[in-house]
Design brief:
- Helix 9 crosses helix 11 (about 165-180) and helix 10 (about 145-155) packs antiparallel against helix 11 (about 165-180).
- The protein has one domain (about 1-180).
- The chain is globular.
- It has helices at about 1-10, 15-25, 30-35, 45-60, 65-75, 85-90, 95-110, 120-130, 135-145, 145-155, 165-180.
- The protein is built from eleven helices and no strands.
- The longest helix is centred in the last third of the chain and has 17 residues, at about 165-180.
- It is mainly α.
Length: about 180
């Protein structure tokens, strides 16, 4: 599902090449780009507008400004860590086995995780989720929804523009609970 891939890209470090590629893909119509990326219709109308608005703002700003904001939001604030097990275990030793288990889980689906990044990094998780069926994706996201809620709440409290992206992901896991 391309929408999870897009969210993965938007939550990863916004390098110059990524920003250029997004500008080329979205052009002058981020709303149309987001709608076209969400062929499965997973997003609500409000979520589509929020995501398109985030992209429009992101792409209208200089890359160095976007990169500095990203580093401030995610790299310098522990409560905003995109490494989800950090929110559960902090830096405890018990975090290691959870990371190993998650990496093994990915491998059971034939996905070779990026060795430069830990398997609990939200963009890596979204890459994995993008390869699953809709039902599997929602069940997987439901398993991490409590952590996503904490992360989204923390981002909202600080006024981060990334908060709506995490909330959208959290909502996809919440839909699994509603359907059950």
């Amino acid at each position: 599902m391309k929408i999870f891939k897009l969210l993965s890209v938007l939550l990863d470090y916004p390098g110059d090449g990524v920003l250029e590629a997004l500008r080329a893909l979205a052009g002058d119509d981020p709303q149309g780009f987001v709608a076209g990326t969400d062929a499965a219709g997973l997003l609500s109308e409000i979520e589509t507008r929020e995501l398109a608005g985030f992209m429009a703002t992101l792409l209208a700003r200089p890359g160095t400004e976007v990169q500095a904001e990203y580093v401030q939001a995610f790299d310098l604030t522990a409560e905003h860590s995109l490494h989800l097990t950090h929110h559960l275990f902090g830096e405890e030793k018990s975090r290691g086995p959870a990371l190993i288990d998650l990496g093994e889980f990915y491998r059971s689906y034939g996905l070779k995780a990026d060795e430069k990044e830990l398997p609990d990094y939200l963009p890596v998780i979204l890459e994995f989720v993008s390869t699953l069926s809709l039902d599997e994706a929602r069940v997987f996201l439901a398993d991490v929804s409590k952590v996503l809620k904490v992360l989204a709440d923390n981002l909202e409290q600080s006024g981060s523009p990334y908060a709506p992206l995490v909330r959208i992901i959290e909502n996809q896991g919440s839909l699994a609970r509603l359907a059950a």
